[in-house]
Amino acid sequence: MLEGLYAPNTPTLIGDLGVRHPTTEQALRQTGEDWLAGAGGVDAVIVISPHFVTRGGFGLVAQAPLQQLYDFSGFPEEFYRVGYRPQGAADVAVQLAALCAAEKIPAEVTEQWGLDHGAWSPLLHVFPQASVPVLPISICPELGAGAHESLGRMIRKLSRSRSLIVMATGSIIHRLDLWAPDVRSLPDSARSYLAAARESFGGGQWQSLWNAPDAWRRAAAPEGGDLPLRVLAGAFPSFQAQILAEEEEFDAVSLTTVRFLDA
C-alpha cells in the first residue's frame, strides 16, 4: 500500500491561539481513521517536513523512540506540554537508504534531529495515539527538485513490500510577513499560485504547478519551496487527489489538506 497526504503544519493545530481550524482537524482525523481501518494496517509514515533541512544529502532519522522537538518559541506554556512520541521506523530507514544508494541518491540514516513540529503537529490529529511508526526525512535544497522526485520514486519502490504513508507538510501560501498591524492584502499572484496547485491536484497531474510563473511562486513563498511536494510527485507520478480542506490563517497562510491515491 502507498498513500499520500499534503497537510498544514501550523502551530494552531497544537494549541489555542484564538484560532481553530475544525475542517482541517476533522479531515486529518478522518484520514487517519481510514488508514487504520484498512486491511493490513500501516507499517510506517514517512514525513517530509520543511523544518528539517540538511546539506549534502537527505537525512533519514532512525531513533527509538523519536525525540520530539519543540522547534518554536514564544508560544503559551501548554504548547510545550503536548506530547507526541511515536516509535521510529529504523528498518524502513535502512531499506530506503539502501535503495537510494543503489541509485546514487545521497541519503544517510542518522540519529540526529527528531520529530519537529512540522511533522508532529498534523500527526497529532492523523494518528492521535502515536501508534504508527514514523520516519522523518529532510529536504536538501542544494540537491534540487529532481533529487527530491528521485527520493519519492524510491519510496514508491519500497512500498512494493511495505505499507507506507508518505506525508509532506507545509503551506502553499506562507506569507507570515504580511501578518502585521498594518497588514497588506495577500498578492493576487500568490492566490494564482494556489490556484495552479488546485488545478494540478484536481487534474491528477503536476505540470500546472511546476509550470507556474516564478513570480507567482515568489509571491506565495511556499514552505520549503516546492521540495516537499516534489517528493510526493516522485511517489505519485500518476495520481488521484482529493482536496479535503482549504482553510486560511491570518489572511496570509493557506491550510490546504490533500489526500493522494494511485490513479
Strand content: 15-25%
Q: Any idea what the radius of gyration is? A: 17 Å
Characterize the main sheet: 6 strands, mixed
Seen as an oligomer or otherwise, the chain set is single chain
- Given as residue ranges, the uncertain stretches (5+ residues, pLDDT < 50) are none
In total, the number of domains comes to 1
> Tell me, what is the CATH class?
Alpha Beta
Proportion of helical residues: 25-40%
- Strands in their spatial order, largest beta sheet: 5-2-6-1-8-7
For CATH, the homologous superfamily is named as: LigB-like
End-to-end separation in angstroms reads 13 Å
CATH architecture: 3-Layer(aba) Sandwich
Element order: H for helix, E for strand: EHEEHEHEHEHHHHEE
Name the structural class.
Answer: alpha/beta
What is the global morphology? globular
Overall mean confidence score, pLDDT: 93
Number of helices: 8
Please describe what this structure looks like.
The chain has 263 residues and is α/β, with parallel strands linked by helices. It has helices spanning 22-37, 90-102, 117-126, 144-158, 188-203, 207-210, 214-220, 227-235, and strands at residues 2-7, 44-53, 58-61, 107-110, 134-139, 164-169, 239-249, 253-262. The protein has one domain (2-177, 223-262): Protocatechuate 4,5-dioxygenase, Chain B, CATH 3.40.830. The strands form two sheets. The protein has a six-stranded mixed sheet, sandwiched between helices. It has a two-stranded parallel ribbon with strand order 3-4. Helix 1 crosses helix 3 (117-126), helix 4 runs parallel beside helix 8 (227-235) and helix 5 (188-203) crosses helix 7. The two termini are 13 Å apart. The mean pLDDT is 93.
